[in-house]
Amino acid sequence: MAEITLNALAHTYAENPTRPEDYAIREMTHVWEQGGAFALLGPSGCGKSTLLNIISGLLEPSNGEVLFDGKRVNELKPEERNIAQVFQFPVVYDTMTVFDNLAFPLRNIGVPKHKITSKVHEVAEILELSDQLQRKAKGLSADQKQKVSMGRGLVRDDVSAILFDEPLTVIDPQLKWKLRRKLKQIHEQFNITMVYVTHDQLEASTFADKIAVMYNGQIVQFGTPRELFENPAHTFVGYFIGSPGMNFFEAELTDKLTFGGHTIAINKEMLTRLKAMGTNKVTLGIRPEFVHVWDGKNDDAFPVSVDYVEDLGTYKILSFLFNGQVMKARLSEDQKVPSGQIYVSFPEQWTKVYVDDYLVDLNVHPTSSDKAIDNEQDKETDHAN
């Protein structure tokens, strides 16, 4: 097991990078704690696989360091890092038996035969492959082959970490939930540092204790599934996490916050903070789950028009027009389905405030949100120079 530290890490495929957009990985410093189960979540093209390949040693970063337990490993080959990596598509030797596939990493490092047999049977039992050990790998199903790929990472006691690069891509949807649970059980049993790359928020939430959300080559938030849902630190997190994602709308700041002539409730401390930041445009966000839909007129609510309703069985998603903008609210199973003009309100504690896409949070030091924004802008300026 190892603590993996990315120190001022950045990577580009361009020969002469001049803009932030030229970097597949923009400069970041991040720590994967020893023994943790982490997910790296983001859309295709955001840099997830590039970052994973840098950690494993398949790719050398343009700038910065990769540290295992404080030791720089930039120059070490993948096999010297004691990293196991499971890819999207199963990597197995079809002409070998399942036993020989699992034993292969141990034979390569000279483990005694009796220990190999013991370890292979232990891992095969965990992965429910015991009855397949004498079968040729070419006769296995896709999910069984992926189990073998995972097992090859688990047989080694000296492995520093296991990296999973969207390992359930080829797995039948009905079997995915079972393998996700199996991975979680394996982590709890072996306490190995695991990093799981995926674009699927359900996979990330099921597997990981903490999730790093990646966007445009940056980790924009690192936290528990609940933290990402309830307190998105970046507008992309609000958009990407949740189904449907967060409602966003632009508000004007004067002596109050307004949207289309409507005053949005916000506490005085937040107003003071926003004025000190010198901006007159802010983005407000609220999740559909927290929008309050009223049965009748309410002085504290806004009049809106129902657009349409999606019935998803145990709940419904109401789409409505607020000042010409489509927003969504989640209705419980037994809640009356409204029509025509209705009234909605946005509870203050669940209405998030963003400037330049970053959360303005009153629970942190008064200037930290400002600094987060300034630092991001400074980094982009530095890269451009």
Please tell me about this protein's structure.
The protein has 385 residues and is an alpha+beta fold. The protein folds into two domains: 4-230, 3-Layer(aba) Sandwich (Rossmann fold); 244-359, OB fold (Dihydrolipoamide Acetyltransferase, E2P). It is 29% helix and 30% strand. It is built from ten helices and 21 strands. The strands form four sheets. Strands 6-7-8-3-9-10 form a six-stranded mixed β-sheet, with helices on both faces. It has a six-stranded antiparallel β-sheet with strand order 13-12-11-14-20-21. A five-stranded antiparallel β-sheet has the order 15-19-16-17-18, with no helix packed on it. A hairpin with a 2-residue loop joins β17 and β18 (325-332). α2 runs parallel beside α4 (142-154).
Key attributes of the depicted protein:
385 residues, alpha+beta, Rossmann fold, OB fold (Dihydrolipoamide Acetyltransferase, E2P), 2 domains, six-stranded mixed beta sheet, six-stranded antiparallel beta sheet, 30% strand
Shape: globular
Reported for the largest beta sheet, the result is:
6 strands, mixed
- pLDDT below 50 for ≥5 consecutive residues: which ranges? 366-385
Count of DSSP strands: 21
CATH topology of the largest domain: Rossmann fold
CATH domain class name of the largest domain:
Alpha Beta
Sheet-strand content, in percent, reads 25-35%
The structural class is alpha+beta
Helix segment count? 10
Radius of gyration from CA coordinates: 25 Å
Spatial order of the strands forming the largest sheet: 6-7-8-3-9-10
Q: Write the CATH homologous superfamily of the largest domain.
A: P-loop containing nucleotide triphosphate hydrolases
Overall helicity: 25-40%
Mean pLDDT: 88
CATH architecture of the largest domain: 3-Layer(aba) Sandwich
